[in-house]
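ingest -> validate -> predict -> emit
validate: passed (alphabet ok, no gaps, 492 aa)
predict: started
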Amino acid sequence: MRAATLLLAFAPLLLQACAAPPQAPPVTGPEPVPAIAEPTPSRPPPQPGTAAIDATRLPAFEGERRELATPHGVQTVDRTVPTDDLWERIRRGFAIQDLDNSLVREKTTYYAARPEYLQRILDRSRLYLFHIVEEIEKRGLPTEIALLPMVESAFNPMAYSRAHASGLWQFIPGTGRRYDLTQNWWYDGRRDIVDSTQAALGYLTKLYEMHGDWQLALASYNWGEGAVGRAIAKNRAAGLPADYENLRMPAETRHYIPKLQALKNIIRDPRPFGIDLSPIPNQPYFATYEKLRDIDVQLAAKLAEMPVAEFMALNPGFSRPIIRASVTPRIVLPADKVDIFHANLEKHGKSLVSWKSYQPRKGDTLESIAKKHGTTVAQLKEVNGIPARSRSAPGLMVVPTTPATAASLARLPIMYAPPIPVVYRRIWHTVKAGETLTSIANRYGVALQDLKQWNPGAGVSAGQRLAVDVKTTPKGKPRPKAKGRPYKKASR
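emit:
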């Protein structure tokens, strides 16, 4: 107890002693400067006034010399050197996350088992790939997108789907109009190589910015951004993952990205699949010619000294045998044909057109129009996109100026097949309880944006009437029933 009392009495003195700084020892010599700990530099700094070391005066290296060889089987790529092969350039730009599942393996096997079909796609792509890759890299997009037309259209610019999608990038009419792709009787910008590529890359960029994920962006390109957005919201509301692999979607969309991944796998390393991927020169295949006047398709090909089929492969947007400069003052030519075309055009002293517009008059029939202009009804229908069974003349047609022009039509290529013109008619939809603008647009197969444009400022309430422009294919008069004995269809 007493010891504890003494300890308490001396506690303040002990605390004061601990807080006081220690007394310095008596200084017997000059006061030392305190040392400051600094990290030792890896290389001593040069002394002021010293010159840089002259490497030429250093003694020769006398140690053992060894050459370091590249390990066996390891290939190195200098990415700072441009490649001569466009395929290699595409491989270097792959940046989308790989997908690896049973569907990818199924699609890879499918393509690898059909080398002739795949080769046709690859051969068609050679005309367009350089331009597409150039435009992709300008926007900083992954080069897998350059393979997307293989999935969309098999690189056939004349491809036309049941959903009325057209061109390499398969734009439907509504989306095409949203991205300024002109669609009229003379020309369809959805098939134009330059315009459709610009529109597709702009659309894909928007979709990526919307989702921040390329797989969702690609799913939106196929299915529609609204549909993907609703699927994402539904998963989030249910507490489920909202990535591509966990969304519920139509079978076509579910198979869409695996097809692209399968093609990516084959392009990345074609040898294990037995595919011969011939190099594509990493240089422009085509160039544009801007100073255009009205000119026949056949004459334009002739002046460029190239077959009409090849000319149309680069200019698939034209729907008639005459190119109207007022509609599109540009044609696309192989890069080595531009100067040839210009020189021949300057020397051509004759008329550039042998077709003219014709508006049928009252009482005109296809038969009378064809006879008047020295052609056949079949030829007249072909160049004007008139259905084979139609008997009525449209409001605007092109007709040959001379019988010789009509005779030359037989030399147009098979791929020159103008699509049947689409006619729109306005109907009125009465909104039912529970319907939305989206469900109404889906019902009639139109774009939501178009539906809003036709009904500006309109809300959705039961009983309300909305305007909808739907497509109808022009039909002629019904054919009379054939008389006589019935016949059997030949089996195929």
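The CA atoms of residues 47 and 436 lie 80 Å apart.
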